[in-house]
Structures are given as structure tokens and as C-alpha cells.
Amino acid sequence: MISYKEAQAVVRAKAHTFGTDIISLDQAQGRVLSTVIRADRDYPPFNRASMDGYAMRWEDLQKGILEFQVVETVFAGAAATRDLPPGACYKIMTGAPVPAAANVVIRREDTEERDRTALVQRIPDRPFLNIARQGEDLSQGGIVIDQPCICEPSIVGLLASLGQNELAVARLPRIAIVTTGNEVVPVEAPVGPAQIRNSNRWLLQSLLKKWQIDPWCYQHAPDDKASLKAMLEKALRADVVVLCGGVSAGDADYVPEMLEASGVHCLFHKMAIKPGKPVWCGTTAENTMVFALPGNPFSCLVGFILLIQPYLQACFGLPLPSPLSLPLGSFKKKQTPLDEFFPVRIHGEPAHLQLVSLNGSGDIRLGMQANALALHPAERPDLAAETPVMYFSL
Ligand code: AMP
Ligand code: MG
Hints:
By secondary structure, this protein is of the alpha+beta class. The protein has helices at 4-13, 58-62, 153-161, 200-209, 225-235, 255-261, 297-315; strands at 20-24, 32-33, 37-38, 48-49, 53-56, 67-74, 88-92, 104-107, 111-114, 117-120, 131-132, 143-145, 149-150, 166-170, 175-180, 184-185, 196-197, 217-221, 240-244, 265-269, 273-274, 280-283, 289-293, 324-327, 339-347, 352-355, 372-376, 388-393. It has four domains: 4-17 and 172-315, MoaB/Mog-like domain (Molybdenum Cofactor Biosythetic Enzyme, Chain A), CATH 3.40.980; 20-43 and 137-170, Alpha-Beta Complex (Molybdopterin biosynthesis moea protein, domain 2), CATH 3.90.105; 48-132, Molybdopterin biosynthesis moea protein, domain 3 (Molybdopterin biosynthesis moeA protein, domain 3, Beta Complex); 324-393, Beta Barrel (Beta-clip), CATH 2.40.340.
């Protein structure tokens, strides 16, 4: 049986780009930038007052001058129109360009304002105090972003500053979702005593939303070979197919057999993890990637986080996130000889991984309130509280 790390390497080795899209900035959230971004000018573009106050020559202060004549008030968005005679100053607002003759700004709080004069009450210890200097953040033409990165809010803000209204981003794959099972009914339908609602469809859709991916097609297959085969015919026209259920050892688990009958070549079946062990993964001659996850909701989540997300990241040119670890909040017993994944909440100061209640992989609560998936490695016996434990952020 393959380890989860080997499985990640196998699926990432199959990754390929889906092309590039040009989108506007308002569509950028969660998309992955695919070009180098350079600064179109210096940032700040001018010496910018970072406080409301008075701008003068540092040298005048050095000479012992404390009372300055105000020659002009400089507001944000406008340049000064007057020269600066010796012993004079500008009244200046945050965000305004500091005129070339001035090289220090004294905060308003550190002066006494009189009629058209400012009396400095606290002498600065250096020139350029309270001035953000032109180009100190970025210089014109310099590379700001040189590798694929997710447009998180701070990146979106940065791109706006740089005037990047149109962006080249990694194109999203067409993803087909196929859920299976005679007992599984749509969320909006009446549910019989032996039936359950289809939660995994929505779990998967929600996980994909984080990448701004809406499924290209969705189907539900009953547990019979012919229907499954018919549905796979359409699904396999997608770039990625995600199936759920029907991959384990049950008498009605036809998914691996029907995938192979549809021309999908198996990359691996079963991963040495708990939960989520029966996962099946394969690929077609046309490079369609197929992930068949077990039907239990928590197994489905684990399969997405461990395999599908790393695959998508590789397709978008993103590295595998580096592992993080934190001390465990309480004792955890080892249950199997496998790598065990369990839901935790990163919590507290200093932060710990708190165990989140979960009655096995079929628990519909899905580790509610968990914000990470922690790993109890195969080779480790029971984990004592305070043991550092690796986790994947959710
Ligand atoms: P399976 O992997 O098909 O053997 O299913 C394992 C468990 O997951 C069973 O209890 C199924 O009823 C349940 N299950 C399968 N598919 C879904 C689904 N789409 N949503 C919620 N639970 C499911
Ligand atoms: Mg089933």
C-alpha cells in the first residue's frame, strides 16, 4: 500500500497546466497569478508624509531653530507651490508629497501651533523622520511577484496599487463530480428511514469553491454497473473527475472496476491512512485525472485535502505547502498501524492542537469547528499531550 506522501508525489507528477485566463481584478480572489508582476513606478512614488504635522529642513533644527513660519499647507493629492525660505516650514497632511526642500516631518502632537507659526517641542533624532521615502517599498521596474501565488486579500490590494486591473491567472480545470450509492438522496428530497442525504456533493463543491472552481458537471450514480459506466462516459470528458463512494470492498462497490472498464489506468488503489484508505486514483490517455474517494464524509474530506488539493496546487504551479507543527493539547491513542488523520482546532496562546470530537469517518459533523487536519504518524505510539504534531491547515 502506498503512503500518503508517495501518493501525493504520484498525483503531482501527473499535474499539468490548464492554460491561462485573463481576468479583471474583481475576479481575482482565490485565483492563482501566473505571470511575473513588476512595479510600474517607485513605491512610495514620492516622499510621503506619514503623519499630519510640519515639514521643514532638518538642518534648521540642527541650528537650534525651534519656531517656524508656515509658508503653505500641503494636502494629500497636491504638490507645494511655494519655496521654503530658511526657518520656514510647510503644514502637511498624511499622504501628501513632502516638498523637495524639506527632509523631516514633526508630528502635530509634537508642536505648539500658533497663528501661522509652529513651535517644535520635540526635536527629532534623525532626518526623514515621519517621511516614507520614494522607492523604499519597491523600485520602478523591480520584480514584485516572481512565482505563482494565490490572490489572497493582501495580494489583491497590492495588485490594485500596482495598477494591475487585468491579470493573467491559471485557468481552472473542468471538474466532474460523481457521487454514488442507492441509499444517497439529494438534500432537497424526502429521505427514507434507510436513506441518507448527499452531503459529499456539497462538501466537495464547497472545497472546490476555495479555488473558485464550480463543477463542470455533476451526476449521481446508483450502485449498478451500467448506470455508472454511462455516467463515466460524460464525466471522463472533464479535466478532473472526482467520484465518491463505491471504492471499498463491498459487494456493490463497482467504481474501480467500471473506471478500468472505461479506460482509466489505475495509478494506485488504497493509501496507508486512516480514514480514507480505499481511495482509488487513475488517469486516462487524454490526461484526465480521476480521484475516487470513499463515501464516508470525513474520508472524503481527507482525500480532498491529501490528494486533490495538492494535485490542483501542482497544476497551478504552486509548491506543496511546507509542513507545520504545534503541540497537541491532550493525549491521543494510536488506533491502527497507519498514518492517522484527525480533526483539530488550532487554539490558545500559546497555540495548541485541540482534539475535535469525531465518531469515526462516518460522523456527519466532519470535525465541525476544526481548522486543521493533524497527522498521527504510522510509526508513532500514543501521543502524549504537548507532543509536537504535524498538521494541514483547513
Ligand atoms: P461507500 O464508500 O460507498 O461504501 O460509502 C461509505 C459510507 O458513506 C456509507 O455509509 C454511505 O452511505 C456514505 N456515503 C456514500 N456517499 C455519500 C454521499 N454522497 N454523502 C454522504 N454520505 C455518503
Ligand atoms: Mg456506496
